[in-house]
Design brief:
Largest sheet: 8 strands, parallel, barrel
Structural class: alpha/beta
Number of helices: 8
Distance between the termini: 10 Å
Order of helices and strands: EHEHEHEHEEHEHEHH
Length: 216
């Protein structure tokens, strides 16, 4: 089954609750919350208070929390306590990523690792047994609305060739057309931002992505 996640980063920040409800009403499965520290990536976004507020307002909705931070290990407990259903850390950060993944899993939630466009799959080969999901960035992380990088698709196929059977998520420039490329390569989770939230008919976008199921 393809999971469709709505990116909070693309929301109208004065109406986040209404935007989330609108996306849920249009068929998305989960929320994707980008946490940016203005160091690891050149942008500053949300903190644990956003995760906590979303958990309070939408207690049954899964939150996939993507930590784009230099020192995520210092904040794992905070985001887990705030209500994250999954926490993803970047392979490129300093520190013991293996230990971070183990800690996330020990908390009873999903653990994920993300790779930037310039990072190869071999970098995370030894981490895969600790991962419930792998997030393949299809743009340079930091800002929404960027153009999809189709040359990232071989990474998805490479992960499957390595025997990885967990969830493979793609994030960056995902719309109905690029989603088809990602699913064909083996992805089964789609993070959608501007293409979904600013669509005239978000439900039609969701339906188009649902129609891709079974094409991996």
């Amino acid at each position: 089954m393809i999971e469709i996640l709505s990116s909070i980063l693309a929301s109208d920040l004065l109406s986040v609750g209404a935007e989330v409800q609108r996306m849920l009403d249009n068929g998305v499965d989960s929320l994707h919350v980008d946490i940016m520290d203005a160091h690891f990536v050149p942008n500053l976004s949300f903190g644990p208070a956003m995760v906590s507020a979303l958990k309070k307002a939408f207690p049954a909705v899964h939150q996939d929390v993507h930590l784009m931070m230099d020192n995520p290990e210092k904040y794992l407990d905070t985001f887990i306590s705030a209500g994250a259903g999954a926490v993803t850390v970047h392979a490129e950060v300093p520190g013991d990523v293996r230990a971070m993944l183990a800690k996330i899993r020990a908390a009873g939630i999903k653990a994920g690792v993300s790779i930037k466009p310039g990072t190869g799959v071999d970098t995370i080969k030894e981490l895969l047994p600790l991962c419930d999901l792998v997030l393949v960035m299809t743009v340079e992380p930091g800002f929404g609305g960027q153009k999809f990088m189709a040359d990232m698709m071989p990474k998805i196929a490479a992960l499957r060739e390595l025997g990885y059977r967990g969830q493979i998520m793609v994030d960056g420039g995902i719309n109905a057309d690029t989603a088809a490329q990602a699913v064909a390569a083996g992805a089964d989770a789609l993070v959608m931002g501007t293409a979904l939230l600013r669509a005239e008919d978000p439900a039609a976008v969701v339906r188009a992505c649902r129609a891709l199921e079974g094409r991996t």
